[in-house]
Amino acid sequence: QVQLQESGPGLVKPSQTLSLTCTVSGGSITTNYYYWSWIRQPPGKGLEWIGYIAYSGSTYYSPSLKSRTSISRDTSKNQFTLQLSSVTPEDTAVYYCARDYDKHEYDYWGQGTQVTVSS
Q: Of 5, 33, 76, 96, which sits with the fewest C-beta atoms within 10 Å of its C-beta?
């Protein structure tokens, strides 16, 4: 059974960088052909895909967030990390990590973590 767990600060100041880590257990993030994704849900809105890091280490980001997003991984810890720079209150959301097995089809999710951007 694969499990994902998000961790990171729940409060970030405007203009700072949001950094979240997803720790994966029960499966390796280098296993073919999975894509390890970050997704968020702002209050009162739908899910928004942020980007992924693939089993190979390649990355792909949402065009609307690409200029501010970086996803990396630490294979020795079986973790992947989201960094979102220059945050504003519009980045306030519940952030999820998830495993994509087929073009935005997800079979495992983390429980989600609330991040609030406020001074």
A: 76
User: Phi and psi dihedrals of 109, rounded to 5?
Assistant: -130, 150
Q: What is the pLDDT of residue 101?
A: 93
Task: Report whether pLDDT(103) > 90.
Answer: no
Total Cβ atoms within 10 A of residue 35: 23
- Name beta bridge partners: 36: 53, 99
Q: What is the pLDDT of residues 25-56, one digit of tens each?
A: 999 999 999 999 999 999 999 999 999 999 99
CA 41 to chain centroid, in Å, comes to 11
Is residue 68 within 8 A of residue 86, CB to CB? The reply is: yes
Q: Check if the beta carbon of residue 50 is closer than 8 Å to that of residue 22.
A: no
